[in-house]
Model the fold of this input.
Amino acid sequence: MEKPKISVIGVGYVGLCTAVGFANKGFSVMASDVDPEKAEKINQGIPPFHEPGLKEKLKDSIQKGNLACLVNQTEKVVNESDFTFVAVGTPSKPDGSIDLKYIQTASQDIGKALNKKETCHITIIKSTVVPGTTQNTVKSILEQESKKQCGKDFGLCMNPEFLRQGSAFQDTINADRVVIGAYDKQSGDKLEELYKTFYSTHTPPIIRTTLSTAELIKYASNAMLATKISFINTIANMCEKIQGADVKTVAAAMGLDKRIGPLFLDAGLGYGGSCFPKDVKALIACSKAFGYQPELLESVENVNKTQPLKAVQFCKQQLGNLKDKKIALLGLSFKPDTDDMREARVIPIINQLLQDGAKITAYDPVAIPIAKTIFNNQIEYAPSAIECIKNTDCCIIVTEWDEFRKLAPEEFASYMKQPNLIDGRRIYKLEGFSNKINYIPLGLGR
Ligand code: UDX
Done:
């Protein structure tokens, strides 16, 4: 039997991984994006962002003719496919709620295409949208533009994505679960069947639910993970006040409790990236709009706001006034294995250090080009970690890239002017570092 044809609207992390995932399994996939540069790169087999493992799979999909990316051709790709995944951005507005302009435009274009389509098409919202959006915004626009009825003439599902940057492609093809929120049973059945073909013998648990429950599952999952991080950071901050207490050991022991689990208990300078900060804010705004004040989530966010500035406080404790002090920052991306600096914890750290008059040199294995677009020549950029720490008064580990783990205490001691090392991600073993340099690990009582 011929495989159904897939279209994808928006080729950011979620859209491109979805497109490449289906193309790699032999589906014919057409994508459409508003950005011509992005589309051109994709058609040449080059991912428009740094993502391990994606390049080979993308190249293979393009070479086999299973994937093509068009510019602003939503109507065409919908017309020529059976399922359309919508993965456009839902950026934050100043009040924390999400901006639905891209979702609205995509829905209008899909609706226009549906108006001319003979066969029953299924639209699947993959973008992260607050509960009620698929039903109230997407469905209404699709019906208005197509002059057809949802659930009868066309199908509509909400199917959130849980991929992590740095392992985005692997997460797409090896999901923990598939959540299918469906407007009508038939659309849900068809999408379930599509995923069963996609995953074959490795099909993960499939959760069938309503549109708004599916929307909430995504937010609740991210908010839970963000809560774990702010929780362990709170414990880290407490540990620092208690002689002999170490958050690393606390987290390791807590993680052995099956009800808690070991993941997302790494204390550090807080969470960043394109999802957690935005999603926690959006869930707070959405909850307030529904009439419930989500105090727990507000605290999660507040802890995350102050956490990165601890690195600056530690600097001041060691050096006093920071004016003209040389500070080395190791790591710029919001986490290792990505060049993404959206909401990276280094941004508030740099802003505060600049305000205090410090001279900053930064190094990151891949994020320097992005950092230059944010900080221009306000800071210096080093070509390696060693060059970065040379002649500095204090070094802060901001992102836990593997290559920083390999730096030896002697290297900090011999290259730095004053060997003050703030370990904002707890990547070094206490024993090796404590005697040779002034090692200040986050979350350790002294
Ligand atoms: C996250 C979710 O994990 C993913 O399911 C969702 O689809 C998108 O958002 P991502 O933003 O790629 O993925 O990164 P993730 O690995 O979850 O890390 C997010 C942030 O939390 C990073 O800044 C990371 O440094 C921080 N973090 C993570 C901690 O500070 N401690 C931890 O224990 C784990």
User: Anything to note?
Assistant: The chain has a mean pLDDT of 96. Residues 161-165, 222, 225, 229, 264-266, 268, 271-273, 275-276, 334-335 surround uridine-5'-diphosphate-xylopyranose (CB under 6 Å). The chain has two domains: 6-209, 234-441.
